[in-house]
Design goal:
Blueprint: H1 2-11, H2 14-29, H3 36-52, H4 56-77, E1 101-109, E2 112-117, E3 120-126, E4 134-141, E5 144-148
Helix pairs in contact: 2-3, 3-4
């Protein structure tokens, strides 16, 4: 313990900047965003220690307070609701086709068939429709597209 105290007192405020670099490197290896906020707190404490020269015990207190403050600040402002996408259905492929008119590839019989969208085939469920009929996608049920035949009466 004496050797660690000697090393920390020898490095002085640079201890915090070295710790910050280590935390930033650890952030790149560990999944998630966990060490970034502690690294930022270490940079702030290092800068304060260089500028003011206050003692190591107070640096520890400042590190703890700034770490807690950065974590709570991030939890308040960096929520999933604040990250709105311009393409909300990006990972829900079937939902992107709602409202689109498609061609029936395999006749829809007893409520089941297939439709062609671009170069791919999708399972479809809805009103019976012959091969080649044009239907409109109205929804998604799992991996099946829900279709309606606009010509059916």
């Amino acid at each position: 313990m004496q050797q660690i105290t000697t090393i920390l007192s020898t490095l002085g405020p640079w201890t915090w900047l070295i710790l910050a670099a280590l935390l930033f490197m650890l952030e790149t290896v560990v999944p998630g965003v966990h060490f970034l906020w502690f690294g930022i707190a270490a940079v702030i404490v290092g800068a304060l220690a260089i500028a003011t020269g206050f003692g190591f015990p107070w640096q520890l207190v400042a590190f703890a307070l700034i770490s807690v403050a950065t974590v709570f600040w991030v939890r308040r402002y960096a929520t999933p609701a604040s990250a709105q996408s311009d393409v909300p259905d990006l990972n829900v492929r079937g939902a992107q086709y709602i409202g689109r008119t498609v061609v029936v590839e395999d006749a829809i019989v007893n409520g089941r068939g297939k439709v062609r969208i671009g170069d791919s085939m999708w399972g479809a469920q809805g009103e019976d429709a012959p091969r080649g009929a044009k239907v409109t996608v109205t929804g998604v049920n799992g991996t099946m597209l829900v279709v309606e035949n606009p010509d059916a009466e």
